[in-house]
Design brief:
Helices cover about 30% and strands about 20% of the residues. The protein has a single domain, classed as Roll (Ubiquitin-like (UB roll)), CATH 3.10.20.30. With about 80 residues, it is an alpha+beta fold. It has 3 helices and 5 strands. Strands 2-1-5-3-4 form a 5-stranded mixed sheet. Helix 1 runs antiparallel to helix 3 and helix 2 packs across helix 3.
């Protein structure tokens, strides 16, 4: 799975993108966010308030219950505002 990190998430985790193999227990976006938070200090800090994290799977807005597959591209970004 390809993960893309944007804005302050990228700064906190220290990478813009990475390819990962998820544990079989991670089946949806909620599970992914929990798994990411448990990966270490930078990840823990970035994903602690996961309710504010926005997620897109294969360039489509995703929700906590959205299923994931090994070949998905998942973008993770903070909320943005316009003006």
């Amino acid at each position: 799975m390809k993960l893309l990190y944007f804005a302050w998430l990228r700064e906190k985790v220290g990478v813009a993108e990475e390819t990962v193999e998820l544990p079989e227990t991670v089946r949806d976006v909620a599970g992914l966010l929990d798994w990411l938070e448990a990966r270490g200090a930078g990840f823990s800090d970035a994903f602690r308030g996961e309710s504010v994290i926005r997620v897109a799977v294969n360039q489509c807005h995703a929700f906590a219950h959205t299923s994931l597959k090994a070949d998905d591209e998942v973008a993770l970004f903070p909320p943005v505002t316009g003006g």
